[in-house]
Design goal:
Blueprint (H helix, E strand, L loop, with lengths): L1 E2 L4 E3 L11 E3 L3 E4 L5 H12 L4 E4 L10 E6 L4 E6 L3 E5 L1 H7 L4 E7 L5 E6 L4 E5 L3 E7 L8 H5 L9 H16 L8 H15 L13 H16 L8 H8 L3 H8 L5 H17 L8 H7 L5 H12 L3 H6 L15 H6 L3
Antiparallel strand pairs: 1-4, 2-3, 4-6, 5-8, 6-7, 7-12, 8-11, 9-10, 9-12
Helix pairs in contact: 4-5
């Protein structure tokens, strides 16, 4: 059903330069037509089911002819997909359970013009898919830290501009040529992708991003990264962030004001991290231990804060681990596993 290959396969015809031409296989290939009709949709669902819910428009028992290729570019994931029409949604429970924080840029083409759209996996979304051709680029936040707030401002948007269409065409053309590129080319590909995203998307500043100078946006992203790295540190707080970022308390407060304040942000990220651990079916540590690792020493206070934030108790989050498929192990050979392993 799946093909994984790192070796290169010689073609019959030599290249124009007189050298041997090669086809470099993607990290993952899927063609559901290799499965019996009643198994085709299940084969597709195994790839992406833990991340989004999908509902095909036609009866999946009669067949679901989907194709995809995925290339791991070393910190970026490029996906070329051909799938029948379906509805999709990523719920708040998905977001809380897996903690994914990547952007997904989608270049799609049907009977009309090429379209570029963007969603962030740290927030719920829903829609209908009917494009004839689509390429998805999955981008971790760390890849574009200085531009993160500008890109966040476009979450859920269709970038309907000449630059947006230029980026969409770039992604579609890149996917079409990936079989000609070897792994040694990937650093150059990543640099080209970064330049194209920054050149085509960052100038389109909306919302919060327009209110922050580039230096302020960079400091805020550094602060958010520090918070994420130190969620288990008992010393994490305003003083520590001010010291490590070399900013005053008043400046730090101003930067975090749109996010509800420094203390609120740290508390929320700790609660979200605890939720991810509780929703992990393989993590059987006690609720008290999971809370204490994230700075919540008083179990009663942790339970109250958790319920205020999410609307249900920590024990409910643990009891509902059977609602979503388990997060694949890092060695699993699926599209979802490749997405989880992005750094």
């Amino acid at each position: 059903m799946f093909t994984f290959a790192a070796e290169r396969l010689p073609q019959v015809a030599p290249s124009v330069l007189g050298l041997h031409a090669y086809v470099y296989e993607p990290a993952l290939q899927l063609d559901t037509r290799e499965q019996p009709g009643h198994r085709q949709y299940a084969a597709w669902l195994e790839q992406i089911g833990p991340v989004v819910e999908t509902t095909p428009e036609s009866d999946p028992n009669r067949g679901y002819k989907a194709e995809l290729k995925a290339w791991d570019l070393g910190g970026l994931l490029l996906i070329d997909a051909r799938i029948p029409p379906l509805a999709y949604r990523r719920t708040i429970r998905h977001c809380r359970s897996d903690g994914l924080d990547h952007w997904v840029l989608t270049a799609s083409r049907s009977s009309g013009p090429t379209v570029l759209s963007l969603v962030c996996l740290n927030q719920p979304f829903a829609g209908r898919w009917a494009a004839e051709e689509a390429v998805h680029l999955c981008v971790p936040r760390d890849f574009l830290r200085p531009a993160a707030l500008s890109i966040d401002a476009l979450n859920g948007a269709i970038v309907d501009s000449p630059l947006g269409r230029l980026l969409a065409e770039f992604l579609l053309n890149l996917a079409a040529r990936m079989s000609e590129l070897e792994p040694a080319d990937y650093p150059g590909v990543r640099s080209s992708i970064r330049a194209m995203i920054e050149g085509c998307m960052v100038p389109t500043r909306l919302g919060l991003a327009s209110d922050l100078q580039p230096v302020q946006a960079t400091i805020l992203e550094r602060a958010r990264r520090l918070v994420q790295q130190r969620l288990g540190s008992p010393t994490l707080g305003v003083d520590e962030l001010c010291r490590d970022l070399a900013v005053s308390r008043s400046r730090l407060y101003r930067l975090f004001e749109p996010l509800g304040g420094v203390v609120h942000y740290i508390r929320y990220r700790r609660l979200l991290d605890a939720h991810i651990a509780l929703a992990d079916a393989e993590n059987r540590r006690s609720i008290v231990a999971i809370a204490a690792e994230r700075g919540f020493i008083d179990p009663a206070e942790f339970s109250r804060a958790f319920k205020r934030e999410f609307g249900y108790r920590p024990s409910d989050a643990r009891a509902s681990t059977d609602v979503l498929p388990a997060r694949p192990r890092s060695s699993a050979k699926t599209l979802t596993a490749l997405l989880y392993n992005l750094r």
